Amino acid sequence: MSRNKVHAPLAQRRKRTALLFLLPAMVIFAVYVIYPILSSFCLSFYNWDGVTDKSWVGFANYNELFHNPVFFTALKNNVLWLVLLMLAPPIGLAFALYLNQSVWGMRLVKSLFFSPFVLSGVVIGLIFSWFYDPAFGLLKLIVGHGIPVLGDEHYATFGIIFAALWPQVPFCMILYLTGLTGMNPEIIEAGRMEGAKGWTLLWHVVLPQLKSATFMSITLTVIGALRSFDLIAVMSGGGPYDSSTVLAYFMYDQSIKYFRFGYSAAIAVVLFLIMSVFITYQLRRLLRSES
Amino acid sequence: MKKVVRYSALCAALAFSALAHAGEITVNIAFKGAGSRAVWESIISDFEKANPDVKVKPAFIEEETYKVQLPAWLTTVSPDIVKWHEGERMAYYAERGLLEDISAEWPKNGWDKQFASLKQASSYKGKQYAVPTDYFAWGMYYRKDLFQKAGITSEPKTWEEFLAACKKLKAAGIAPIAVGGRDSWTLAAWFDYLDFRINGYDNHMKLMNGEMAYTDPKVKKVYAAWKTLIDNKYFIDNPTSYTLDSVQPLFNQGQAAMTLMGTFLSPVIPPQVKAQTGFFQFPVINAAVPVAEDGSAECLNIPAKAKNKPDAKRFLAFIGKPEISARIASALGTLPANNQSQMPEDPIARKGFQILSGTTGGIAQFYDRDMTKEMADEGMKGMQRFVTDPSKLDEILAQLEQTRQRVYKK
Amino acid sequence: MYPLPIEKWKPANRWFYKASLPLALLVWLLPLLAVMMTSVRSNDDLMQGNYWGWPTKIAAFENYRAVLVESPMLHYFWNSCLITFPSVVGAIMLSAMAGFALATYPFKGNTAILATFVGGNFVPVQILMIPVRDLTLRMGLFNTVEGLILFHVAFQTGFCTLFLRNFIKELPYELVEAARVEGATEWQLFYKIIIPLITPALAALAILVFTFIWNDYFWALCLTQGDDAAPLTVGVSALKGQWTTAWNLVSAGSLLAALPSVLMFFAMQRHFIAGLTFGATKG
């Protein structure tokens, strides 16, 4: 976006206006998000059970965390979640391409495809638990013998991520559908004229135009992966024996079940630091694409 | 809409204003399902009828949510009555000075006698902090028809008879024991009972109190007995894949013959299955060890920060009555805490009552109610690992021992 | 248009496509159908492990009655409305203003503020739990609808600001300059020029945020107790049974709880799709 240079007093005035526009959002955001984050940072250096007084312990919480094997299991699972849930954007794109036609009743079809997204995690978790049930599950009927997906430390996380894809895919699908609708038809036609077909057309002509949809899908999928909380709680409770836990769940466990608020704040801080790598990367990409 | 928002804000403000009206008590009740909510609602309205000068403001909170929120209530804005668990769970808060000492109420209301067997569990350092409402017994549910089919003629009383029964069931193509190990506490019941029967109550409580090492040979003996059952495949396949909910179809369909569970399960067994269901006491392993049992009790407490303690005590006095205890128990499928109450009709509940009242070796609360929560959870995760791969036992116990030293050092 | 509209396809392919649609829908919605079936199953069926077969007895009336009449579901529903609508309006309003400021005014610290909003948005919510609880308690808003609204507004503002800032940034800047030349104040510029232009985006965002807040369970759990201010999600989880879970009731309750979001999406689909289409104008 090009801008003319504005005179200084005008610039001053606009700056003030900008501030006024920003103020309400900034205030409420500072109170409810920024302050709590900082406060958690501080808390992570204390030992606190929420009942008795806090006591300063320095880096003891972090020290314990880095010596706890559960932390590394959780970390590994977090990575698995991030990587595997990334299947949602491409699958969502495939769905969007499939559904981007004007056939009678398409509006209803699209809505129905979208509906898993609005179901509560608790019910999704339940249905997939039944799907995996080694004695009575649909999976057993399909493959012929029971597979203890949720009872086995090697499969549990994969089983839950598979369930998590079900609501995440339609979300990405919708984003891509909107991208497809808003695409410039002339460019596609021009591509077709030049003989681009199939994959080439999709890869070189269509996808570049869907860049912002892709950005949104990936961003929201990452957020989804990090908030992968309900499903784990319902489907495995982090088990068997912590094998399917993730940092967010591990942290919740420590604070809610054992009232180790300082320790859980330390977990949160680590999770936040990991996230900030991603945040920085995304932001830089966003800003670079604009300049 | 604005009006409603304002109105509800006003209500909330009133509820939380530091000065509650005299003659009003707030009661927080944990509930699961419409049935348990309904019985508390009717009891509260009866209390208000009997005490017209006191207004009760109940808040019903779903059980899981309740557990999460309780510490916050006790430390900040307390209701006048909370519902909680007896034993270590209660002692945790009593120790931190968050519960009101109601020792004086016990002799006054005749509770010393009526709740004699639960007095210990209601006490912390010799003082009483709770009034028990109801409790449940544990035992082995079994399918009479399957026992018959396998040629088992009587309920196993000893470990040998039990193992023989398992063998016969296995030979008849029936999984002897169902367990929903994804809910790890269902495994803990097995540990509790094997430990009661092998090492006895006192040793069990030592372990619960963090005074015994997990690497102690006594603990290993419990797991060795457990391992025999696993090695002979007497448990269902993939036990850690099932929850308490999802394992029941196996029992109901006759694919598994026994399950170790509390009397609370009885009301939900489908009628046609129930006709074929029996309930027996966990068999004796070492005849020299006095028989101990799990008998988990629920209770009501007054938070130390409650605003209207006199009326809260009146409420407790009302709840402590034999007929109220009986009403709670029959609605929840549990046993009335008051020993003057009429016993419930349910045959399994009655059997459970007999088991507990004949117990000479001591009554524990339950694995995860007798220990600090963190140690209990680690222990139960260890059990999940153990049933998945019993060969890892030494490694698991060594790790638990490390955890014990950390948890009990604090 | 991409992919090629089916009118231009070979008839056989066109037929094949149309036939595949219901099939794909069936497979895709199998889990949802299972939820529906569960909601009309009797407890006995579930106890027998009949999760996927045809119910032996249709207990639709009993189950939905239990949910709607025997539990205070309508009260929870009302609470959900009281929480969700003001939160959506509040979050969108605040973030439209903030997004406008960040997109139109180049000033020092612009990027830093944007980064803060984005960063806050990626925070694992659990990190906020303890401080937000304390804060709400201290403000006397614990267990009130307002306490939840304030938090939701604040938390959703991060995401919405990023979204709307990007959207406004895509608008041709000439519009802004033209309006200024005609003497519009900055405020007029905002609500007379920008707001009408981003209405579709606001609608789309509203639906999205609506779903987020409507389905929130975690914060309802942290910031309420009892029935006073508890929303539908809390109500649904309260439908579980005493010891074993009444999954048929939970399913019925969840379907009812999801209904508003599905209906809203269906009704507003056109706006939703149009509204999310940013990046389109920048060909």
Short note summarizing the structure:
The complex is a heterotrimer of chains A (291), B (410) and C (283). By secondary structure, chain B is an alpha/beta fold.
Q: Given the C-alpha coordinates, what overall shape of chain C results?
A: flat
What level of helicity do the residues of chain C show?
Answer: over 70%
CATH architecture of the largest domain in chain B: 3-Layer(aba) Sandwich
Label the structural class of chain B.
alpha/beta
Q: Provide the residue-averaged pLDDT of chain C.
A: 83
What does the largest sheet of chain C look like?
none
Q: Separation of termini of chain C?
A: 14 Å
- What is the oligomeric state here? heterotrimer
The CATH topology annotation of the largest domain in chain B reads as D-Maltodextrin-Binding Protein, domain 2
The name of the CATH superfamily of the largest domain in chain B reads Periplasmic binding protein-like II
Counting DSSP E segments of at least 2 residues, the number of strands of chain B comes to 12
Helical fraction of chain B: 40-55%
How many individual helices of chain C?
13
Task: Report the C-alpha radius of gyration of chain B, rounded.
Answer: 23 Å
CATH fold topology of the largest domain in chain C:
MetI-like fold
Which word captures the global form of chain B? globular
Terminal-residue CA separation of chain B: 51 Å
- How many runs of DSSP E, i.e. beta strands of chain C? 0
Protein chain pair with the most extensive contact, residues per chain: A-C, 112 and 101 residues
Question: What is the domain tally of chain B?
Answer: 2
